[in-house]
Design goal:
35 strands, seven-stranded parallel sheet, 1 helix, mainly beta
């Protein structure tokens, strides 16, 4: 009788069905930056560790269906290595910065698609530091989350300057994922530099704080067509968004953000431009003027 072998993401096997005592060979397909502990679990049984030899893992098939387990780990430096290489980076585990780690960076000239895949990227800062961002972008980054639950998260940034979560000095495209639990002077969630572009069609920016622009601070161009900016807080202006450049809104929702002074939802600063063609701005608040837009 043949029994099935069920595999996790990042592992392949030389056979999908095997007879009792037949040798099954597993290969790790995840990038080399990951480390992994591999087990097999017979139906109704407990995990059995599988030792690695010359890059492969082998076990003798029991007389029962088997589920292969893979406990992946990736260091902060390992994630930086993947970002340096460009292309698609699909996370297989949470990644947390070490105490002495710097921000992650997408280098100039490099294009990255980062699929959070339900996992968390955590800078893990508990007090403000210079360049306390989670991510700085100098090339191009597309952020998404392919997980069914949409639980992918960028968090733990705490900067004395701009962009607690993401600081965009290049091109930033947000299609999914959540940026939450970050803090900065300007742009608790996202800061967009002069002459740079942030395009948001999905995902959520929530629970970030800043003096100005709790969710997003825009010195360049911000195009919002989808997604949600919600429950961010500014101790000065622009609970949701501060615009010092150009902001075009054709969709999406800005809601439940708060500011102590002006623009609970959106604060349009100086000679900046805000064009709203569609979307929703609702339920934002401020102590003084412009609960929705100032």
């Amino acid at each position: 009788q043949l029994y099935p072998v069920t595999l996790p993401e990042g592992i392949t096997a030389d056979k999908a069905l095997a007879a009792p005592d037949e040798i099954v060979t597993l290969t790790v397909t995840a990038p080399a930056a990951y480390t992994v502990a591999v087990t097999y679990i017979p139906a109704g049984g407990s995990p059995v560790p599988i030792p690695e030899a010359d890059g492969v893992y082998t076990f003798a098939m029991p007389a029962a269906p088997v589920t292969v387990g893979a406990d992946f780990s990736l260091t902060w430096a390992g994630l930086q290595t993947l970002l340096n290489a460009g292309g698609t980076v699909r996370l297989l585990c949470d990644v947390t910065a070490d105490v002495d780690s710097s921000f992650l960076k997408v280098p100039a000239g490099v294009t990255v698609t980062l699929d959070l895949n339900g996992h968390t990227v955590d800078r893990a800062l508990t007090e403000a530091v210079s360049s306390g961002n989670v991510l700085q972008i100098y090339g191009s980054l597309t952020l998404g989350d392919s997980s069914a639950g949409g639980t992918g998260l960028i968090t733990g940034g705490y900067s004395t300057g701009d962009g607690g979560g993401v600081c965009a000095f290049g091109t930033f495209i947000m299609e999914g994922g959540t940026i939450s639990g970050n803090s900065a002077n300007r742009g608790g969630g996202v800061y967009v530099g002069v002459n740079q572009t942030f395009t948001m069609s999905g995902g959520t920016i929530t629970g970030n704080t800043a003096s100005n622009g709790g969710g997003v601070y825009v010195n360049g161009t911000f195009n919002l067509s989808g997604g949600t900016i919600t429950s961010n807080t500014a101790s000065n202006n622009g609970g949701g968004v501060v615009v010092s450049g150009t902001f075009t809104m054709t969709g999406g929702t800005i809601t439940s953000n708060t500011a102590s002074n002006y623009g609970g939802g959106v604060n349009v600063s100086g000679n900046a431009t805000f064009t709203m063609e569609d979307g929703t701005i609702i339920g934002n608040s401020t102590t003084y003027y412009g609960g929705g837009v100032y």
